[in-house]
Fold this protein.
Amino acid sequence: MEPHRLRMRGMRSFLEFLKLIVRYSFSCLVVVLGSNQICYNLHFSLQLDNE
């Protein structure tokens, strides 16, 4: 097993790891934005009810 092929495999697994991180952070962002939107909508509708 020469070092070059080992490095290639390392890069590939590193890219897979990066893809996983990006997907995870993206879903977290979507969840955070979604919950912010829901809270904002709730707050807005409560304000309308109070008037």
